[in-house]
Amino acid sequence: MNLRQLRDNIDELDTQIVDLLNRRCQLAAKVGEWKTLHDIPFYVPEREKELFERLKEKNSGPITDKSLFFIYREIISAAIALEKPLKIAVLNNINNNGSAEAARKTFGDSAQYQTMESTTSLFDALERKFTDYVVLPIIDKNLSFIEDVCEEIPLNAKVCAERKIDSPATSGTYLIFGNQSPEPTSESRTLFIIQKINSEKITETSELMNIEITLLNNLKYKKLNSVLCEIKGHISDKKIESFIQAVKADNKDNKVIMFGSYPLLFS
């Protein structure tokens, strides 16, 4: 096969791809209409997780999983934008530029992005529905907890997803906040605060129950005697539910404040 024939074959495939993409967007628009009718969020992180897992399973190459995910991220972003472009808010802070990268890797280039000066202003915009989602860093490239950001997160905030970024320019862990409660996935996480308890006791309880737990902050959150924790698993899991109950039962003063359960998205 000569070069002209190879190019003709590529042109033919491009025509098919464009046709299939438009057909996919037409179906996505019908899904969007159904979501609007039933007041369901347009962005569903657990659905994204499920889709990307399926793509990874079906991908036989030569395209890499990472490249395939990038392509589909933009397909999904464009499809959502046909119905309602998502508004995403991040901090306007030179030390948190990774938030913009994490946001774009989550919502694609068809979303509308806005920057704000403080964590408080981000959540105020979310509460007033001036923005759909907030993306915040919780762990920086040095694997240090970003205390000044996270201590401003309101206690009624809802985490929708978590994304880890590992690149030469920017690395860190980011949380996506919104107004929904995702369903369980293969890699769910649960974030919560436990008041009136020390970190050693939490670690001891988690080890006894074989729970994977990360302590993100020790006894400083909002000046409360509390610990910010992330557990591997969804709150609907019996094991996680039992752990929370065990923590509460250990001391009648222990109080658990939930930020929600959410999927760990592909990097």
Write a short abstract of this structure.
This protein has 267 residues and is α+β, with helices and mostly antiparallel strands.
What report would you give on this structure?
The protein has helices spanning 3-37, 45-58, 65-83, 98-107, 119-127, 147-150, 199-208, 238-250; strands at 87-91, 112-116, 133-139, 158-166, 171-178, 188-195, 213-218, 226-232, 255-263. It is α+β, with helices and mostly antiparallel strands. The strands form 2 sheets. A 5-stranded mixed β-sheet has the order 2-1-3-5-4, with helices on both faces. The protein has a 4-stranded antiparallel β-sheet with strand order 7-8-6-9. A hairpin with a 4-residue loop joins strand 4 and strand 5. The longest helix has 35 residues, at 3-37. The protein is elongated.
CATH class of the domain at 83-178: Alpha Beta
- CATH superfamily membership of the domain at 83-178, which one? Periplasmic binding protein-like II
Based on helices, strands and strand pairing, what is the structural class? alpha+beta
Number of strands: 9
The N- to C-terminal Cα distance equals 39 Å
> Approximately how much helix is present in the residues?
40-55%
* Named CATH topology of the domain at 83-178: D-Maltodextrin-Binding Protein, domain 2
How large is the share of residues in beta strands? Answer: 15-25%
Number of H- or I-type helical stretches: 8
Strand order of the largest sheet: 2-1-3-5-4
CATH architecture assignment name of the domain at 83-178: 3-Layer(aba) Sandwich
Radius of gyration: 21 Å
SSE series: HHHEHEHEHEEEHEEHE
